[in-house]
Amino acid sequence: MAGFWEWDYSSQNGPSKWVEKFPMAAGSRQSPVNIETDRVESDHEALISKPLRWKYPATASRKLVNPGYCWRIDTDGDGTLLSGGPLMDDVYKLEQYHCHWGCSDSRGSEHTVDGQAFAGELHLVHWNTSKYKTFAEAAKAPDGLAVLGVFLKVGKAHEEMDKIARLLPYVSHKDDCIEINEPIDPSKLLPVRGGRAGSSNSAAQRCVNPCMRWAGRIIRPAENKGSQWQDDNGYWTYLGSLTTPPCNESVTWILFKRYIEVSHHQLNIFRNLRKFPRGEECPCHENHGVVINNFRPPLPLGNRVLRECGSF
């Protein structure tokens, strides 16, 4: 909200209009971007020297919120940790995680890979506790935030995501909020080594699309075994921004090369969220008041370096 102007994803107040109220949205370090695999610089040795690590106690997920443009789970951050890889020795704490999706299963992700979109994209947002005292302070610094990005592809139902989907009817309208009583483990929402992609005889190793030249060697499905500490080196990383206003250029992006599967039914539950408060009349405009196509289109990478760690 800026004055009486509220941003959203419509043609009237959507991404192409954000810069009018949020000048940072026109910066040179904006996100998302299209991952052009032939432009990626391999930096495996440097990145693997300090492996990417995370720790997420299931009890850290405290509150499910409908802010009017997605679903979001707020955490208390206690016991959470992200470090290593492009973050080096700095320690980051999980602040919240949320999701983006489309009106159909063919689009919904914010980042794309060689122009190909996925059905959705999960973001785990962290802030640098080694250098800053609060999330708000970190969000203004160039190295203040780190976001783990996970692509979603339609397939079988995801067990941990289903815990979230079952709660969404209780936050169906904007500003609805409920406390989370059943533990939701963020680590089980991440793709890691040791899942189906690591089994050479698994049918689940099929490509996202056999026509994609990169699919067989980069994007594969994966399952998470659920341990709190994980170490995976298959990701892309670059310096970018928040993908929602005010679009602060403070994010180190870490995008996993492996996707997770969610079901068509689970995505349809996401699409039933309302973008207007309970008790108000449904706005008669595009999307009929439901939260769909809540993604910002890719922006130019420009002179930024897109690095990768690991290959398949």
Automatic annotation (TrEMBL):
Q: What is its EC number?
A: 4.2.1.1
User: What positions does the domain Alpha-carbonic anhydrase occupy?
Assistant: 5-310
One Gene Ontology cellular component annotation held by this UniProt entry: cytoplasm
- Cite the Pfam families for this sequence: Carb_anhydrase
Q: Which domain of life is it from?
A: Eukaryota
Give the matching InterPro entries.
Answer: CA_dom (IPR001148), CA_dom_sf (IPR036398), Carbonic_anhydrase_a-class (IPR023561), Carbonic_anhydrase_a-class_CS (IPR018338)
* Example GO molecular function: carbonate dehydratase activity
- What Gene3D superfamilies does this protein's entry cite? Alpha carbonic anhydrase
Query: Could you tell me what reaction this enzyme catalyses?
Result: hydrogencarbonate + H(+) = CO2 + H2O
The record's PROSITE patterns line, in alphabetical order, gives: ALPHA_CA_1 (PS00162), ALPHA_CA_2 (PS51144)
- What keywords are annotated for this sequence in UniProt? Lyase, Metal-binding, Zinc
What is the required cofactor set for this protein?
Answer: Zn(2+)
| UniProt record similarity statement | Belongs to the alpha-carbonic anhydrase family.
Its biological purpose is as follows: Reversible hydration of carbon dioxide.
The protein depicted here goes by the name: Carbonic anhydrase
Q: Which organism is it from?
A: Nasonia vitripennis
What gene is behind this protein?
100116407
